[in-house]
Amino acid sequence: MALSYPMPYHASSSAQAFWQVGELVAEVMDHLSPTDLYACAVVSKGVSHYALGSLYRADVSFQDILKILAPVHLVSTRQPILKFDEMNFLRSPVSDDWDHFSQYARRVRSLSCISLRINVQIFLDISSVLPAGTLLFPQLHSLEWYSTFPDVMAHLDLFLGDALRDVTISGPPASLPAALEALWRRSPALRRLSVHANSVDEDAVISAAVVRGIMPTLKAFQRLEHLQMHPSLVPAAAVPFLYRLPRLTTLHLRPYLLMTASSLSNSYDSSTLDASENVFQCLKDLVCDVRLLLTGVGASLSAPSIQKLQVALNPTSTEADLDTIARLLRDNCNTLTHVTIVFERPILLPPDSSPITSTVLKSFLGIQSLRCLSIDDVRPARLTCAELEELAPMCSRLSFLVLCARARLNGPASPDSLNFGSLITLAQHCPSLSGLGLGHFVATPPPDLQANPPVFRWLRTLYMDYSTKIEDPAAVAVYLRRLLPPDARLELPPSRFRSATTTAVEAANIKAWKEVSRIFDAMKPLRNIAALHLKN
């Protein structure tokens, strides 16, 4: 677009040249604040073109842009048990209003319609001035739609079009099947989809009719690459039907609900799938509940390309459950590099109740492609120093290892539990580690180091354990200085507890670890000299 100069005629030639390059002007506009963009929008017609393009491209609120179409106001609305304000037009828009509004609407790429309390008459008024065959937002690529009102959900199709690629929907469960049907019909080239049921907690059971209405439509999104679903919307028996999404690379179904699965098992018979369809062809990232892998689906859950897996467990999960999962992954996932195990709803239980044992860890470390293993539980792993020495050579391929770094000891520690000497074992066998966290260290002084101890050459972060009592921060800092590289840092992971009692118990340990970190950082010049000496 040719720009009318927004400056005097005597401006420098370089300044004039700048305004002649539309791409450069557009790039500059993308870095301005909304206030500056509003100012640019009134400079000249040419500059306004680029300023408005940046201003209305992303993060546009439907409630805000609606005010451009016609004046709006809030109208009090009463229902049997509540009163709230709804947005409505002061007057119905006319064709001239649409001509003005369309200059802004055609620039919108990303739109949010969140907490919509809008009188449905607004949608009818918009439809009355929208020219036949015209889309409300023709260039819309990303849409967030959150509403608790079924009558508002019914007008979702007004925002849908061929350009749409990324959609997040949250609405009443009963409204979701129709919403997804409209989405598939109007925006079949969708790449990313997140579906949530609002006003429903994680343990709720959604009716089988709703789930049956959703699944056939999901299978129709053949270009879908990312799918995230509310935990109660996808029963375990329905998961194999998602195999028919040939481009699906990311699937998030966490936390997972099993209660619906039994009532739907007859409706989703995976035996109707061809053998060639019984696989996630492109799936690389899976987040799910442990029960998805243990209820019969796991045996057929084939994902030859999977790279990242996050599994949510509850405190009642057993050592046998974890060993089953590890063997399943070892035997079926040849490209798996990241495994994260999270025990949700932390409860302080006796240390000997932990299902994390040497046997379980051996099974996970048997995954040849594994590079990152993280297990997050408030119970310390049932692992002795001798067992760690046996496991350490199997960890040599890992770049990230965190074993219950946020553990809280609830009872006496075993004398042969992990201690500061365990770091020497890992430094000797795991030179590639860049992140490490272990819990629980026995509250003993760090051991004496030999003249040239093994060193973590690439370690960047050591996650500290809240439960370890530090008697002498300076001695611990000196010990760590000799094992860690100059760029390493000590980090306290966020606590998983909020109770005053737990916080009081942790306070002294946290204070001591912060003192260790302060002394450790102060010794960085010495660490640099030691690293240079080691290199030479």
From TrEMBL:
It comes from Sistotremastrum suecicum HHB10207 ss-3. Gene3D superfamilies: Ribonuclease Inhibitor (3.80.10.10). SUPFAM superfamilies: RNI-like. This is Uncharacterized protein.
